[in-house]
Automatic annotation (TrEMBL):
InterPro entries: Uncharacterised_TMEM59. Belongs to the TMEM59 family. The keyword GTP-binding does not apply. It comes from Ataeniobius toweri. This is Transmembrane protein 59. Interacts with ATG16L1 (via WD repeats).
Length: 131
């Protein structure tokens, strides 16, 4: 967020405000910012180092301060996008694994026996036994 030139009487202050906005973004990126207050403090510290004039420092600090709501909103959006695991998901995963193992074991253990017998009259009798 930047301000038009009429907000500050001098062009240097406008650039200082814009630089404060950029500094906040850089500090937030470098810290992988979970703590936005710490990011804001670092940004303000950088403004003090960068500008000797109080008006320019103030404009730079305003740039830092005005980025805070946007960073909070972005952080909320990122948290909303994070996938959440349902409490029972690990249980269903284990159950599915168990079903697969039991199915394979049953297929491995199950066997079929087939007996062919021929009767005295020449007919063939088939016996199948499933174990």
């Amino acid at each position: 967020m930047t301000y038009s030139l009429h907000t500050y009487p001098r062009e240097e202050e406008l650039y200082a405000c814009q630089r404060g906005c950029r500094l906040f973004s850089i500090c937030h990126f470098v810290r992988d910012g979970d703590d936005l207050n710490q990011t804001k403090s670092e940004c303000e510290s950088t403004c003090r180092e960068a500008y000797a004039q109080p008006d320019e420092q103030y404009a730079c600090n305003m740039g830092c301060h005005n980025q805070l709501p946007f960073a909070e909103q972005r952080q909320d959006q990122l948290e909303a996008m994070m996938p959440r695991i349902h409490l029972l998901y690990p249980l269903t995963l284990v159950r599915g694994f168990w079903d697969d193992v039991m199915s394979q074991a049953q297929g491995f253990i199950t066997s079929t026996w087939t007996f062919y017998l021929q009767a005295d009259d020449g007919k063939v009798v088939v016996f199948q036994v499933f174990c």
